Amino acid sequence: MATETYEVLVIGSGVNGGFTAYQAARQGRKVLVVERAEPGVEPAASWASAGGVRRQGRDAAEVPLAIEAIERWRTLEEELDVDLSYRRDGNLKLAESDADAETLAAFVREQNANGLADVRMVDRAEALEIVPGLNDRVIAGSYSAEDGHANPPATTRAAARAAQRHGAMYRNGVRVSALVLDGERVIGVRTADGEEIHAEETVLAAGVWSQAIAGSIGLRLPIQTLALQMLLSTPGPAVLKPVIGSVSRALSLKQLPGGEFFLGGGWLGDASDDLSGYTMRSESVEGNWAAATGLLPAVGEQRITSKWCGLEARAIDDIPFIGRVPGIDGLTLALGFSGHGFAISPAVGRAVADLIADNDVPELDGLSPARMSSWSAEEIERFVKEPPANTKVLAG
Description:
- By secondary structure, the chain is α+β, with helices and mostly antiparallel strands.
- The chain has a domain at 4-70 and 152-224 and 316-385: FAD/NAD(P)-binding domain (3-Layer(bba) Sandwich).
- The chain is 28% helix and 29% strand.
- The protein contains eleven helices and 20 strands.
- Helix 1 packs across helix 10 and helix 3 (63-73) packs across helix 10 (345-356).
- The longest helix is centred in the first third of the chain and has 16 residues, at 98-113.
- It starts with a strand and ends in an 11-residue tail after the last helix.
């Protein structure tokens, strides 16, 4: 069998892999995406994501991509020629005590210093204008009118279709067993069927499944697997436009166009050992529901209809690894998005495509995999093997 050769090989068709393939194909490059299943299906993070499209609350290293992405989202449905259920209805983070309000004031100052001038404090009266029906304890909030939310599976599949329209090839149901090295250069992959696929540039964007693939060349990634929970309610009257959360609650709450409340916030389930699925935790379901109904009592008039988890790769410092791996030519990482990669995915795809085309991409400097050397092998091993057993890890 002749070995296939491509200019760009993307491992993983999640939303960030999909946008990378799309951008590289638009540049006229010969692109292949290999995917263990299909784009945007269970239990991948791009299928399960809460779908927030926000800039506020970002690490400073992510802000350039977040600013770029939010502008891209304005016209992304037209660009991809599909309804992504994108709503630019704002993001409101609430304070329920004086201490919370002080925390939010510092948070707003930090956001403004990072260049997000629209993020501002609101008092209780304005918070109630934005979201009527909040509990009696809310005293203030931080608000960004520019933020919003969209449909992650629809966006993931739209990116894949757009990439294919521009000539990218997709091979679904292909499991990568190893990266192939020639000296110190990755020249492609070997599949579980023993086939080799070669490429000038290989992008590893396989989420939690990236660890085993990277390990085939002795690269231990400082990422751990989290099963992040989502809940969906029965539809109710339209009472909530922005995405809301609270300083003191692990909660990301939105209301979908059909009236359903969609709850996230970092509550955990348990991933299966083979990363093919998950089990829910009853205490997480109950805790997430209580957090939502306590903040917005109208949620309590509904009931839970669906619950699920997505398998998310959390980086050791909670920001992604995007860029080339020092000492290994031909390999670029786009992984470890830590529960907040969906919103920035259009900008990530553009940046990675430019990087592997040998363009200067300074907005990736703070996200470079070179920082993996900051942790010892023992620290990385401890992080990988001892994921948190408690809930409330990441606030969506």
